[in-house]
Amino acid sequence: MVDATTIKPNLGMSEEQVQGVVDVLKTLLADEFLLYTKLRNYHWNVTGPQFMQLHELFETQYEALAEVVDKIAERIRQYGAFAPGTMAEYVELSRLDEEAAATYPAARDMVARAVADHEALVRNLREDIETVDDLDDEGAEDMLIGLMQDHQEMAWFLRAFLEGAGL
């Protein structure tokens, strides 16, 4: 019987390169999961005159992030590493701040906080892209570029909502 923990993928990268990419991806996974959790919280707890629009917008975004989280975790596994999978790991690894317990911001604050987190992810992804570029992993770089574009779009949708007069 083969012990799966001893099988190392041969991806044409040194162990240092693989570890560098995996470290970037673990941190990104934590960031994405933390934002996913915040958006779920906002979806469940938003109130006010634009409840339905925000309820649906938050749902659209957390559903997109659920796919992103899975994609990143599976990418980590492709390098032969284990993906973090607990809230304790996510909170420790994430560059985003977790919402304080029993905190239910007003709708406008929810949107503003989500914008800030998406924009923080865009800034962090720019650095992550440079890191994986230095590690010569074009596949990971391509994935991160796509995620950066997705977060720019999600931030734009939310910013457009904040710019409206109705909130």
SSE map:
Layout: H1 15-45, H2 51-78, H3 87-93, H4 107-134, H5 138-163
CATH superfamily: Ferritin, core subunit, four-helix bundle
Top-tier CATH class: Mainly Alpha
Number of strands: 0
**Low-pLDDT segments:** none
CATH architecture: Up-down Bundle
Domain module count? 1
Q: What does the oligomeric state look like here? A: single chain
In brief:
Helix content is 72%, strand content 0%. With 167 residues, the protein is mainly α.
Task: Kindly describe this structure.
By secondary structure, this protein is mainly α. It has one domain (12-163): Ferritin, core subunit, four-helix bundle (Ferritin), CATH 1.20.1260.10. The protein contains five helices and no strands. It has helices at residues 15-45, 51-78, 87-93, 107-134, 138-163. Helix 2 packs antiparallel against helix 5 (138-163). The model has no long low-confidence stretch (mean pLDDT 93).
Which terms summarize this structure?
Ferritin; 72% helix; elongated; mainly alpha
